[in-house]
Amino acid sequence: MTRTEEFEQLRPLLFSIAYRILGSVSEAEDAVQETWLRYELSTTRPASAKAFLSAVVTRISIDVLRSARLRREEYVGPWFPEPLLTDPYEDPEHSAELADTLSMASLLLLERLSPLERAVFVLREVFAFGFPDIASAVGRSETACRQLAVRARRHMDAGRPRFEADRKEREKLAERFFDALREGNIDGLRELLAGDVSLVGDGGGKAPQWASGFFGADHVSEVLATLLPPFIQIGGVVERHQVNGQPGAIFRDPDGKVLNTWTLDILDGRIQTIRTVSNPDKLGHVGPVADAWAVLRETQQVRRDVD
Asked: Are strands 193-202 and 270-277 parallel, antiparallel or unpaired?
């Protein structure tokens, strides 16, 4: 097998490692590309391409994450990971676990870890790497890596998000939610929401922002029932889609351009959290991005005409 073929075979794994460390599609793709350049320029052939390339992409991702953290501290409003529609890495025996580690809630929890803890957790708990390979990847001793893994696992277990165990039930509830949303059915929405549900968005100061969010079933259902019918009326589209391994949707303007993505956290037969990403800088990989301000003006005009 040629070096190029080896790399392409491992590319899905490398991207999945980088994305879980960085929470950014664009930065993960850049990390993978940089990994290829280093591999191509390497004068020696490693005994294990998987171990070597995983180590390289991990080191690059740790460096990128350290600089990204400074930018995120200055971010306008809530910061969410870039939405990922499909994880290129597949492992049929661990598909459910892999999907849950992609969720917005899990990735936000990973933000609490140090870059080293995050990398060790991802390699060990998500991809089951052995400690010798992890030690090589992060440049620490095996003993230190074991300690990092214990600390990371403790932090994650303390706040680990829980989801509806039955994925089919989760999808059925999401389907009912989006049907009620399109209809502006406030009662139908309210019965699907947890009493303390939260609706929060990441606009990054570059798209219409919902203040600090909306909270509580009554308030959230009223807001949703008010906002969505005008959006549908102007030709907006709500396209059901898995986003970060969870039930969600892509919202598109009348021209089919991406307005935002939504993800739903579902537990105990109710929607606990609705997270939206509308920052245009985080949507380019999903498709051509809409002018969110223009869509807002159109929907507001429809509401004024009705009133």
From this structure: parallel
Integer Cα distance of 55 and 18 in angstroms: 11
* In the chain, alpha helices (H): 3-22, 25-41, 49-73, 95-102, 104-110, 115-121, 131-138, 142-159, 167-183, 186-190, 217-233, 292-306
DSSP state of 47: S
| pLDDT tens by residue, 268-285 | 899 999 999 999 999 999
Residue 146 burial (C-beta neighbours within 10 Å; 0-12, 13-18, 19+): middle
Which residues span the domain enclosing 21?
Answer: 3-159
| Residue 110 neighbours by CB under 8 Å, 6+ apart | 20, 23, 118, 121, 122, 156
- Whether 27 shows a pLDDT value over 70: the answer reads yes
197 and 102, same domain (yes or no): no
Torsion of CA 64, 204, 79, 221, to 10 degrees: -160
Give how many domains the chain has, as a whole number: 2
Indicate yes or no: pTM above 0.90: yes
Give pLDDT tens digits for 86-125: 999 988 877 777 888 899 999 999 999 999 999 999 999 9
Asked if residue 186 and residue 45 are part of one domain, the reply reads no
CATH number, domain with residue 217: 3.10.450.50
Q: What percent of the chain has pLDDT over 70?
A: 98
Kindly tell me if the per-residue pLDDT of 70 is higher than 90: no
